[in-house]
Design brief:
Largest sheet: 7 strands, mixed
Strand content: 15-25%
CATH class of the largest domain: Alpha Beta
Structural class: alpha/beta
CATH topology of the largest domain: Polyamine Oxidase, Chain A, domain 2
Radius of gyration: 21 Å
Shape: globular
Number of strands: 16
Distance between the termini: 27 Å
Length: about 475
């Protein structure tokens, strides 16, 4: 039986695309390769019974901020956001920590002589967060409604993070905070546009916080799927699509996949030039991930870390920059930049009473099979002596394991493509409508399209709007 739209992949973007099409009155069906839905928003018992671990994404500032998710009744379908006391802490070797707090003023007060500089750059952007988000969640080629605001963000954002940090801040504390935020780009800190990542993550912490979903990241996907089914959408799991001939007849096909998978599956339905573009799409570094079941909370030296949902381990700007530069050269740093999430401190459903989970990863070269466990644990011990004595069990995933859990993560790249060079703004190609392909009924709706990585569903929403206009004739 034919349908209006088939969606390949049930990550947040595939689910968002399906919902937007179903809300327009169309019949939709999602095909998911794995037994469980969610893509990068899945949870599982990776260590011991009673411990809930997030397979990929853990903390979701852009999920809570998403202009599209905020239009959906996800709370009615089981999604509850929990806000840690402190969104982010960044410990230093002197036993203190820099904290990104919900308040711009409180954050600035922790930066000493750099307080005024931080207020100057963060205050106006946080005050106009909704307007700024409406601009950056669209394709690059659009007529801005808030050009001055976009320039206020875009001009510093286009520069390398190490350059901006040294120009803006005098002290090591502010520079370290900025460097850790910028390192989410998976790029060396001397690369263009890395400051944009630091600014977006800092401002989102002030405007909406860095929350986590009660019960695990799976709850985001489950809430989206529940709402989709309530409006007539269908999801088929354990249904891996490797050839276009497997798909039912539909008026539109939206791929929540990598450009590589789109090119392989759609094959001769796409033009030669476009297929070449998809094959050229570049993927970035991967992650090495360790999840822990712990007998108690991490014994951080800095009190701020004991109240933070996210902790950045990397020390100074110079140390983080050196680590990320090594990864970009295909090397494995001895002191990697480590991202840590402490969900169970704020969500008791994640672990048995008195026990805790810990979510960690560091950046490694694409396709790496190097075991970084000892180096991650050394970085934690550096700022939390006695941590290793609390470990009950651990789950370790190298880049190959990460890709096996989600085919979109080529070489362990959880950003679904490098943000280096033009791919920061042109994903997968430079176009007014980057979701459309040369074939009228085929679209790309994954994080390989603007606005890129993050659990926000906006790539899926934007692709669905493109399909509604182009294929279905709906304005």
């Amino acid at each position: 039986m034919s349908i209006d739209a088939a969606i390949i992949g049930s990550g947040p973007n595939g689910l968002a695309a399906a919902i937007e099409l179903a809300r327009a009155g169309l019949t939709v069906r999602i095909h998911e390769a794995e037994p469980t839905i969610g893509g990068g928003t899945r949870s599982a018992a990776l260590t011991l019974p009673g411990f809930v671990h997030d397979l990929c994404s853990a903390i979701h500032p852009l999920g809570a901020a998403s202009p599209y998710f905020r239009t959906l009744p996800l709370k009615d379908h089981g999604l509850e956001w929990i806000h840690p006391d402190i969104p982010l802490a960044h410990p230093l070797d002197d036993g203190s920590a820099v904290a990104l707090r919900r308040s711009v003023e409180e954050t600035a007060r922790g930066l000493g002589d750099d307080a005024a500089s931080y207020r100057r750059i963060a205050g106006p952007l946080a005050a106009d967060w909704d307007a700024l988000l409406s601009e950056i969640m669209k394709p690059m080629l659009h007529v801005p409604r808030h050009p001055l605001l976009l320039a206020r963000f875009g001009i510093p954002g286009m520069f390398p993070a190490d350059f901006v940090a040294h120009r803006l801040f005098k002290g090591a504390r502010a520079r370290a905070l900025f460097a850790g935020l910028a390192a989410h780009s998976f790029l060396p800190l001397d690369a263009p546009f890395t400051s944009a990542f630091a600014l977006i993550l800092a401002i989102s912490g002030h405007a909406v916080g860095w929350p986590l979903p009660r019960g695990g990241s799976q709850r985001i996907a489950d809430a989206l799927a529940s709402y989709l089914r309530s409006i007539g959408g269908e999801i088929v799991t354990s249904d891996r699509i490797v050839a276009f001939s497997q798909l039912e007849k539909a008026r539109a096909y939206l791929f929540d996949t990598t450009p590589r998978a789109l090119e392989r599956i759609a094959a001769d339905k796409l033009g030669t030039t476009y297929r070449r573009t998809l094959r050229r799409y570049a993927y970035g570094p991967g992650v090495f991930k360790v999840d822990y079941a712990l007998a108690g909370p991490v014994p951080w030296r800095a009190s701020e870390c004991r109240r933070a949902g996210t902790v950045h381990l990397g020390g100074t700007l110079e140390e983080i920059a050196a680590s990320e530069k090594q990864v970009s050269r295909g090397e494995h740093p001895e002191r990697p930049f480590v991202l840590v999430a402490q969900q169970s401190l704020f969500d008791p459903s994640r672990a048995p009473l008195g026990m805790h989970t810990l979510w960690t990863y560091c950046h490694v070269p694409s396709g790496s099979t190097e075991d970084m466990t000892a180096r991650i644990e050394a970085q934690i011990e550096r700022f939390a002596p006695g941590f290793k004595e609390l470990i009950l069990k651990k789950s370790v995933m190298n880049t190959k394991d990460v890709e096996s859990k989600n085919a979109n993560y080529i070489g362990g790249d959880i950003s679904a493509g490098s943000h280096a060079g033009l791919q920061f703004i042109a994903r997968p190609t430079w176009a007014i409508d980057p979701y459309a392909t040369p074939t009228n009924e085929i679209y790309l709706c994954s994080a390989a399209t603007p606005p890129g990585a993050g659990v926000h569903g906006m790539s899926g929403y934007n692709a669905a709007r493109s399909a509604l206009r182009r294929t279905f004739g709906v304005a």
